[in-house]
Amino acid sequence: METNTYIFGQIQPSYALTDPGSVFFLDIETTGFSPKSAYVYLIGGAFYGENQWQGIQWFADSPGEEKNILKALSSYLSGFSTLIHFNGTRFDLPFLKSRMELHGIPFPFDGFCSIDLYARILPCKSFLRLQSCRQKALEQFMKIHREDEFDGGQLIKVYKSYLKEREPEQLSLLLLHNREDLQGMVQLLPMLSYADLFDHSPLVTQAETNQYLDLENREKQELVLRLSLPSRLPLPVSFHANGCFFTAEENRALLRIPIYLEEMKHFYDNYKEYDYLPEEDIAIHRSVSSFVAKDHRRAASAKNCYMRKHSSYLPQWDVLFTPFFKQRYDSPLLFFEWKEEMKKDREALSKYASHVLYMLRLGGS
Q1: 325 has which bridge partners?
Q2: Tens of pLDDT along 149-168?
Q3: CATH of 2-196, one of 3.30.70.1070, 3.40.630.10, 3.30.930.30, 3.30.420.10
């Protein structure tokens, strides 16, 4: 077994960790994808100590050394309570657990808080216009430079060649890939700020309505919300869907939502308790409709059991505010009535901003 330690250098991720000293980054290299037929040949870890990011690697310089590097990892984790990895939920951790069980080594991560960078960032793929969420793709998005040009699968051949030839250059390639994966994870931490946009409600600091002319020179209105974000974004981001526009930089953002000034309908659920009045084009409860002549009313159906109201409306993609309105019965988009006094309700507006952001993350609908 070979142990290698090093210093990452001047890396200061802008994402705030509550207790950096309790965090351990993990990355493993294996001879295959199934723990039943492959084994771990390299384990890398990164941690913060002595005011700098440091790394450690345990390398199996022969197939029989796997048990030793697994035991070395397990005995090294004292004082750490948070584990950060990249797609480790699906690969690294199950693989390690299986191999440790084979060697009779207790799995050391059961009590850890586990953060999977891949799983946290993946839901933001569309929102960030990412072609891929592989680690190297995310590093390119963040403008992180790396020397390593291999992926884990390609390095399996390099490792097997090293076992036969013992060329120092081969070992350097193996260690470099693992080290830059770990360093990349540390540098990708700020991308969690994008996930925070959807996991923690932004705070509305200002709300105003704005009038503008659309491309057809028609007068329109929009709600403009200025937001304070839960954490600082590493790079500016902008996105739009369903007429809503979002732009953000650092810890500030602007959200613009169209206001619909038109007549909409509120559909009653219990239509069997209502009658429809064709001349007025409304439905009224039978406790009242009994006073209307029979030839001016008929039993309501789900499609005509509504009241109509001309007002200002904001869109919602789920029932966030009630009563909710629709443009027509089969319309998937819901609305709620917008009133100017709602500008003062920052709690409700912050809740609504989170709702719109969630729709944007899904890419609209």
Answers
A1: 335
A2: 888 888 999 999 999 999 99
A3: 3.30.420.10
